[in-house]
């Protein structure tokens, strides 16, 4: 059982046993034992403060003490002691108690808070009959504070000291914050852990930090695993939790990680968290592709689309208006894409870059501007691209880091981060994943840093839009072959997975929308700093190619 050191400063003997007894049971329920020290006077308390090597985690101060000039009455010496205790023990929780304010000291409670007390209560409030400040509630507030400041670690945090990604995450969030947030996640299921190991899982987005957590549970030594997503933005996490709950009612249970927290837990040092259950030996699809066989890739994608997302899309499909309206880029994305076009224009024509001629680049800029700013396709009339189409519920951010693979004899996929779960264009999920795989998993690492593979990648992007099997890439490493296998599975099976284009008539009417959706996600990738410059240049050119192909395929 963990121990905390507590100091009670009170000159009335009868208060000591009362304070200790009110805390004892509730701290024991949390697994903590309180070791009390007592100071019956202000002088004695200051003597204790002066002792080197003594640390207190909890300080309870009576605000009113007998006058030190032998006259009858009381003085608010406790207010001064609070300031001194806060300076001497900056991480301790300070609880101030008094019978109440009166005309002699009308500002005593406010002064106590100003001097550093974390909680100021009338004694009558600190009772079992109190609605908000009963002993159990105050104990929990002290417990949360001590976990947040890291002055006490009931759990041990471990991680790989040589993994730069997890080191950066731990440095950003902090050991105490990680332990405090995971402790609150476990509390939701009335569990506690002895040790917590964190490992890097996926890059966080929009200020979030994401990691895999393995907790060794007390008493049983069993292990449970979570995906822990942390952010200072509670509202964003709350929205994700709400959408996860909605997705759980609409998606196949085996396809979506189960959310452990119905709302964000926290705050701990300004951070909030949501957690989802995770099986051991789970890795991201991007990592898994580096070692996967083509047969396993096909099985995983069949499980993901044929037996998973295709059902969601067909069961939630509904008629809507213009497809271009569904593929609209919001103003902040428009601005970023405009800057990228200006930045990359010299690279497109440079012989050591994309090697395109000036006339084609001028046409590229025209086509992209029409789509990004005017929401139309070159050489088409608005009425031609405004015919009704379909939308359905989608994951909304289906890239290879939001798909986990449970590694076993038969690998299986499961989705995380349903923050974008909402109705969208019917092609959104497969188009998002296809663009991600081509830009970040085909010819990854060194080849993606060089422009030598540009024409090869441009051809692969064209084949993707035409739903043709993928040709060869620059290299033949396992990860590239696996990514091309995944893309070929998509091009071979997209029509059977998307009812909108399953028939020849449906494909004739709506096939161009697939290429427009690819163009949108290629454009969104142009300003992704995680993608090397040659692949970002490819994204610009591939978006142009897809938009031209889409315009040619629009029914007249």
List the helices and strands and how they pair.
Blueprint: E1 2-9, H1 13-29, E2 32-39, H2 42-50, E3 58-62, E4 65-66, E5 74-75, H3 77-88, E6 93-98, H4 108-114, E7 119-122, H5 135-149, E8 156-158, H6 164-173, H7 175-188, E9 193-200, E10 209-217, E11 223-231, H8 234-250, E12 265-268, E13 271-278, E14 282-284, H9 285-289, H10 294-315, E15 318-320, H11 323-326, H12 331-349, H13 358-374, E16 389-394, E17 403-406, E18 412-415, E19 422-425, H14 428-440, H15 454-465, H16 478-497, H17 504-525, H18 533-553
Parallel strand pairs: 1-2, 1-3, 3-6, 6-7, 8-9
Antiparallel strand pairs: 4-5, 9-10, 10-11, 11-13, 12-13, 14-17, 15-16, 16-19, 17-18
How does this structure look, described?
The chain has 556 residues and is α/β, with parallel strands linked by helices. It has three domains: 2-149, Rossmann fold; 156-279, Phosphorylase Kinase, domain 1, CATH 3.30.200; 283-553, Aminoglycoside 3'-phosphotransferase, Chain: A, domain 2 (Alpha-Beta Complex). It is 46% helix and 18% strand. The chain contains 18 helices and 19 strands. It has helices at residues 13-29, 42-50, 77-88, 108-114, 135-149, 164-173, 175-188, 234-250, 285-289, 294-315, 323-326, 331-349, 358-374, 428-440, 454-465, 478-497, 504-525, 533-553; strands at residues 2-9, 32-39, 58-62, 65-66, 74-75, 93-98, 119-122, 156-158, 193-200, 209-217, 223-231, 265-268, 271-278, 282-284, 318-320, 389-394, 403-406, 412-415, 422-425. The strands form five sheets. It has a six-stranded mixed sheet with strand order 8-9-10-11-13-12, sandwiched between helices. A hairpin with a 5-residue loop joins strand 17 (403-406) and strand 18. Helix 5 runs antiparallel to helix 7 (175-188), helix 14 (428-440) packs across helix 17 and helix 17 (504-525) runs antiparallel to helix 18. The longest helix is centred in the middle third of the chain and has 22 residues, at 294-315. The chain is elongated and about 100 Å long. The mean pLDDT is 88.
